Amino acid sequence: MGHGNLAKPIVVATGIAVAMLAGCGGGSDSGAPSGSQNAAVSGTVAGGNPVANATITATDVNGKTATTQAGSNGAYTLNVAGLSQPIALVATDPSGQVSPLVTVLAQLPAGGQTAVANVTTLTTALAALLTPDGNPMDFVTSGAPVTLANTVTAASVSNATSTLDTYLANLLVAVGLSATYDPVATAFTADHTGADALIDLLRIIPQGAATYLAYKTPTDSAASTQQATYLTLNDTSTPSNVPIVPAVSAGTISNLVSLQNYLGTLPASLQPCLVAGGSGSACAGIIDANYKENGFTNITAYNTDLASSALGLGGSVPFLVASNQAGTTALIGIPYALSSAQGSLGQHTLYTTVQQTPSGTWDVIGNQLPYNLSVSTRATYRHFNDSFADVSTGNPDVSFFDAGATLNVGSLSGSGANISYANVSGPGLPSSGLWLTKSTVAGDNALAIAVKQPTSPPTGAFTTGTNTNEYRWDWATQSGVSFTPPVSGIWSKTRLNVATLPPNADYQFTLYNASGGVLGTYKVTNPNAFADATLAQAAFNSGYFPVLGNDVVASFLSGSGALAGTQTAVTVDFTLPPSNSPLTVTGVNVQSQDQNLCGFQQVVGVAPGTTSVTLTASGTGTCKGSTVNNSFLAVNNASDAAYRIVQLRSRNSSGILFYLNETYRSSASAPGAT
């Protein structure tokens, strides 16, 4: 798109190649400005698909900037006259679907010349290889551990390129690229062949302490850990110590190219089907006749967002998460919007399974699971507005970060009416699995993790006082703060190093009825990358989280606040994340629970740009065997200690959930809220 796909790479030492010349341009000395006569860089912004209308900002070694906008095909040209080398290019996606992409250039073209400088997933990985923390945005962040001046040189860029090519050697062969491929300086067309096919097969996954360049092609059966399987993106990786992506057959590559072309047309073909209610002639050839997703045989029944009149798929860029060995079945993500506001497509993603039919076409088949089961990755900051001793540990409440997996066994009605318990095993969970059961807290029609884990399949009336399905496998605090997790089923006994987890995030759900009979065992794939607690900590310290309104804290999360008594509704206002944040707010959850383990929670979605929502406690629940009207329980009742949590929910473009929990416990007798 805008450039031909070059079969022969341009060999450069500086990280850029000068177009229209036989060789490389002679860039000026480090720190000197480029020529004044319309020196420019141009290229393609792509994460596999072109990033339409991306904003590209160049920041030079002195902090001076220049900005332009890419076209609908991701092609851009930026005048860099007056900028001093080295520079960093950052491309942002106005739709919110793609995280910022980065390119660093050690040298700039001379006046009157134009140099190729693509900004893609691969160039972002290359920039990350120059940093100690794997964060390519360091080059445009004040106070970061590296700067353009002390890091980006012709030699360092060349070494990082060699590291990248070593890791990708087998994929370079598979897509027809040179073993010395330069992702920055080699012009390409975003048409899912050649360099673009390579980009389609890769994703960058920040997990906290480590960031990886992962491949979406099948992993080696012998692969044991992420650390031993994927390229770690930091300056300790060299050509001599990196793993190598397994070889991929030509047939698999061909099928995956076919898949990418299909994904490009899917949103436009899917929209009429969804408008028609997910069935009928409008869905012929789109939804397979044997479609089933988590027990639902209609896609709009599975995800009711898809039946909304506000649903928008225009501009959606579906992406590959993982495929089978042959590339004929794939887990994909389809971004969608429920608002016309800019950035809406970054809020929601439909994960589903597609298959290649015998005729070579593709359709949506679903995961074929008979029950509503899912796994996702979550990172949370839990901020306490009190300092009472935790009932479980005896230690005062302190604020902390944690991360882990959210295990969902939902829709305990319809096909799931017979589910009473579940045992879930898989990466990061206890070796004996984790037991989930029904909760005593009203408002959530799903199983919760049992605080006290049974040693054998439970039978009879076994419930838990918690209403969380969030397993915490890692935690962290700000400097000088000490935190010890309680002994509880929702907490790992020791902090987990997610680098030791396997590359495949497959979990086994064994479901039981009330008498302990097995209903079945099912494999569920987490479409998100793993995360540790430092992922949330880094985002918080960078100011990326939303901020709860002070008025909500003062009135609702305080024993002396105006709303400290029992409430049937509460209005929650907040400040959205800043424009440079990778997070998009998706919802608000308010929950409360008392010392009798009775409580209520309510969750509402948040449209882009919205900064205030009202949550209402309606209906009835059960408390100590009696029917009660649902409410947000009081935190000023001395005879019934309770906690309240206001949770602001966000996600990044990789689908990882980021939660901010603002919490208040009314006394040391209130249930722990860790």
UniProtKB/TrEMBL annotation:
Domain of life (superkingdom): Bacteria
InterPro entries in alphabetical order: Ig-like_fold
Protein name according to UniProt: Cell wall surface anchor family protein
Classification lineage: Bacteria, Pseudomonadati, Pseudomonadota, Betaproteobacteria, Burkholderiales
